Amino acid sequence: MSNAPVIAAVDGSEHSLRALEWARAAALRRGTGLLVAHVLPDHAQLYAGRRSALHDPRQPEEFADPVGDRIRALLDTAPDRPGPIRYEPLEGSVPEALRVIGAEGLMLVMGSRGRGGFASLLLGSNSRAVATTAPCPVVVVPHAERGAGAAPDASTGRVVLGLHAAETPADVLDFAFAEAAARGTTVQVVSAYVVPPAPTMVVDSPFAVIPPEGLPDDGDAVPAEREMLRSQTERLAPFRTRYPDVPVEQAAVPGDAAGRLVDASRSAALVVVGRHHPRRTALSMMIGSVATAVLQHAHGPVAVVPTLSDDG
Fold it and tell me: Taking every annotated instance into account, which residue ranges of this chain make up the domain UspA (predicted)?
């Protein structure tokens, strides 16, 4: 799937234009093409259906598509163009149309909200539905008010990977390492462990980031933390071999994994999480609680990665 394009889902809103810019930069980093997908609004779809049913040659063959015109103009003036670029108007519901075209993509990039819905919502219903069902990784780019002030195509910052060492599928790790390699940056691995509450525990204290060579060999670390770091190291070993130039930082934190990932998103280039709990069936429409929370509250782009292979 290395030649698959990056797909940008657009609807003409400012949210989707931020996603388009992120997707353009991603296609350049990955050395692949860009497919811009626009699900036509209902009135355009009704027009196409009416013209087809009536077979009226006096009617124009195509309904005016101002979104397509605007997208082409923006890409024509972009400083760097990935190649090839294809614009694809789609019919049907937004989640279903993007789910179908997502089978062609290396990843599908979309804004956290579109034109519809309530402005106060952090994550639109279409964004959530696509992140839940698409057959490829889905990157959700937040609107400007939620961001940390960085441009959506910023290449700085590390890639943060939410990892459950025993359960996160290999596809999730591979996507995170590939993205870090394309950016020339670090993968920061964050795992959470459960500990009994103690009077002296400071829940909001910053977590420690530890390079693999710095893992404690003595008894200074909390046993659960030490075991979590050891499990991380074992799980990460084949990916460190596959991506030898990608630096790795490891963090084991008590309590809430989603909260820590949201905090990390303030300075991250991308947060990567798995979509489903692996014990759910392949046809499950559920999305994991960590992925849901990170999508709802992250301050930067989030990649939700499904299990793509049988050995994931």
Answer: 6-142, 158-306
Contact 14, 41 (CB under 8 A): no
What is the C-alpha separation between 258 and 126, in angstroms, rounded? 22
Range of the domain at 217: 159-305
Distance CA 22, CA 7 (A): 10
Q: For tokens 């991506």, what's the residue?
A: 243
Distance (Å, whole) CA 263 – CA 185: 19
The token pair at 231 is: 């499990």
pLDDT at position 30 is: 94
Question: CB-based contacts of 41: which residues, under 8 Å, 6+ apart?
Answer: none
Q: What is the per-residue pLDDT across 205-218, written as a single tens digit (0 to 9) for each?
A: 555 554 554 445 55
Number of domains in the chain: 2
Residues 22 and 131 in one domain: yes
Domain final residue pick, 89, 113, 146: 146
Q: How many CA atoms lie within 13 A of 153 on its CB side?
A: 15
One domain for residues 22 and 95: yes
125, with CB counted inside 10 A (0-12, 13-18, 19+), is middle
The answer on pLDDT for 97 being more than 50 is yes
